[in-house]
Structure formats: C-alpha cells, structure tokens
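R.M. (postdoc): so does anyone remember the format we settled on? I'll just put the structure tokens first.
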C-alpha cells in the first residue's frame, strides 16, 4: 500500500477555499462547511493565490468592476467599491493601465483588491510577498495591515518568510510534512520551544567545553551557546559561575529567539533547507 500523499500549505488553502475537495476530515470556514456548503464559503471569503489573478487585456479599474459584478454587485456598487479599493491600495494612478504593465508589487496589490471587492469576512493570502524585492514586500505588508485596521478583515496567510509571521501574525501554525507541529502566538512558541540564547566566546577550547558543561549548553570551537528562559536575567549569574571556575570570557551577548529557531527546534533543520535553490 502506498503512503498517503502529504498535504502542504498551498493545498490546504485550496481545500479551505473549496478549490479542491478535502482528502479527509471536516472544516468550517466563515461559519460554513467546505464540503456541504462550498457556495456559502465562497460568498464569505476572498482568496489571493500565488499566481496573478487579473487578466491582461482590460484596464485595472475594469478588472475590479468585472470581479464585483461576478459576485453579484450592481454596476454602480461595483464601480463604487472599485474606486474605494483603488484609493486604499494606492492604485488610483494605475486605474487605466493594463495589469501586464504593472510591477510585481503593483500586481500583488491589484490581486488583493480583487480578493476584497465583495467585502469578505475572511481573506486568504497564499505567500503574498514571495518573489518581491524588500521594498515591495514592506509596501505590501503596509497595505495588508491597513486593510485589517480599516475593515477588520480576518487574514489567513501562508509564508516562507518566518520574520513576517513573527512580526505580523497574531497566531502562527507551523506545518511540516503535511502535519501541524505547532500552534500558538509567535511569542509563546518562541518561549516554549526555543528560549532565549546566551552566547559567549572563550580564550581556549578547553574553557569553551567547560563553560558549556557549566551552562548546560553546546560548544563550537571557542563559542558556547546556552538556551535559557530569560537571557538578560541569566547572563550575570552565568558569568559569575564562569569566573569562579577560572574561565576567562572574551565576549558575551544575549539574543531573543526567532521563529526560525522554533522551526529548527521542532524539525532539526531550517525552513530554508526546504526551499528550492
């Protein structure tokens, strides 16, 4: 018997948005069962996939109006909503251009506008900033956060950029091998699964090994890394213990964990190891 295929995050999103039938189990999205009432789900959500949503032959404003009409808005309602989103997402100067002439960041903003045209309660974003330069990534996130503040829309997103999830998300779910391996706020996951880090360097390898033994950490050459609950509070006591043992410390620093540290702690590898070169 062949093993069941693993379900990744993009496939999971397609199931939650009714684009793919679930392989097993049940899911309720925006108060509607994805298998029993897919139309009810679609009426209440927006979905922005990894690929561009707009066509190439019509102007930006016309794309938005057409999308609104597809969701049952009257022509007047669709035009009013398009104007609102063009202003909110700084697309008004681009309204008469065709999507194919836009930059990557501008096209992603148009994709988001298309997903919001019918005022959904829940917006799914599948890697909204992947492939964008740092400036465009920051710009997209500024607009996403503004949308949440303006409309109170719940945003469900996937990302390979753990720094984004760390700083932006109120709740983080880590999926590995098709299974949820962690679920909570970024702060709780970092505290529970990674912890703060003390890093010191010593003058000799012997001192590093002894310092690692005293702190319960790991030595790598002259560098010693120790996981603790509160690095700022633990550092003075650790340094006193090393001094009492006759170990000379050359440098010492503290660091808060990141979600990369959480992923490494859970899986034994970095998330970047899974990305294509």
């Amino acid at each position: 018997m062949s093993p069941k295929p693993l379900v990744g995050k993009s496939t999971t999103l397609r199931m939650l948005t009714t684009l793919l039938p679930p392989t097993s189990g049940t899911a309720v999205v925006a108060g509607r069962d994805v298998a029993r009432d897919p139309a009810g789900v679609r009426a209440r959500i927006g979905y922005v996939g990894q690929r561009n949503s707009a066509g190439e032959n019509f102007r930006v404003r016309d794309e938005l109006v057409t999308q609104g009409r597809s969701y049952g808005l009257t022509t007047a309602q669709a035009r009013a909503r398009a104007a609102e989103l063009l202003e909110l997402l700084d697309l008004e100067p681009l309204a008469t251009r065709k999507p194919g002439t836009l930059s990557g960041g501008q096209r992603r903003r148009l994709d988001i506008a298309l997903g919001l045209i019918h005022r959904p309660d829940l917006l799914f974003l599948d890697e909204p900033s992947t492939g964008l330069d740092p400036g465009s990534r920051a710009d997209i996130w500024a607009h996403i956060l503004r949308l949440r503040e303006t409309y109170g829309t719940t945003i469900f997103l996937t990302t390979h950029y753990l720094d984004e999830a760390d700083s932006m998300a109120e709740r983080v779910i880590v999926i590995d091998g098709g299974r949820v391996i962690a679920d909570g706020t970024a702060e709780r996951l970092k505290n529970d699964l990674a912890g703060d880090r003390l890093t010191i360097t010593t003058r000799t390898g012997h001192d590093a090994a002894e310092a690692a033994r005293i702190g319960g950490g790991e030595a790598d050459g002259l560098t010693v890394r120790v996981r603790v609950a509160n690095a700022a509070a633990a550092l003075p006591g650790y340094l006193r213990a090393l001094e009492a043992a006759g170990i000379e410390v050359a440098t010492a620093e503290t660091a808060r964990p990141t979600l990369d540290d959480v992923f490494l702690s859970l899986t034994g590898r970095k998330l970047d190891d899974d990305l294509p070169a």
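R.M.: ...and that's the designed sequence above, right after the tokens. Also worth knowing: Confidence is low (pLDDT under 50) at residues 1-5. The chain has two domains: 9-158, 196-256.
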